[in-house]
Write a structure and sequence with these properties.
Layout: E1 16-19, E2 22-27, E3 32-35, H1 38-52, E4 61-69, E5 72-81, E6 87-93, H2 102-115, E7 119-123, E8 128-133, E9 139-141
Parallel strand pairs: 6-7
Antiparallel strand pairs: 1-2, 2-3, 4-5, 5-6, 7-8, 8-9
């Protein structure tokens, strides 16, 4: 795998290994080894940031959260749930080379139409967009990541 880019997140330490010519990283939340794809590189950094900087409880972070859209199974990249288990934040991660555009926003909004989280995060590791979803169904862009304590 070619070298992964430096992201606009603090550096993190990953537990990794090489298997069959692939780099894998340990995901404690899922309890398994994952191929370190460019998108997974961004996801690992986002999860670490949500815990370290935003106050998210690591036990309340769910990766590849199942979402059923029109009867079709989908998966939200990262969901942080509240103490009652309800979604609080939905995040969509893209590889650093993928732009964050209206299609990415629409994808996350579709997931959130089912989940009803208060916050939406879109990131490719280089640029981050954070939104608050209000009771009227509007999305207000925030200046930065929300505090989740």
């Amino acid at each position: 795998m070619k070298e992964l880019p430096k992201l606009a997140f603090p550096a993190i330490r990953l537990r990794g290994r090489r298997t069959n010519g692939r780099t894998e990283v340990w995901c404690a939340a899922r309890g398994c080894w994952l191929v370190l794809t460019p998108e997974e590189w961004v996801r690992r950094h986002l999860v670490a940031y949500l815990v370290a900087a935003c106050g998210a409880d690591p036990l309340r972070i769910v990766e590849e959260y199942p979402v059923s859209l029109n009867g079709q199974p989908q998966r939200a990249d990262v969901v942080v749930v509240d103490a009652a288990g309800a979604p609080l934040l939905v995040a969509e991660c893209k590889a650093a080379g993928v732009g964050i555009d209206r299609a990415v926003f629409d994808q996350a909004v579709r997931y959130n139409s089912v989940l009803g989280a208060r916050y939406l995060v879109l990131t490719n590791g280089l640029k981050h967009y954070c939104f608050r979803h209000d009771e009227a169904g509007r999305y207000e862009q925030l200046a930065g990541f929300p505090v989740l304590k």
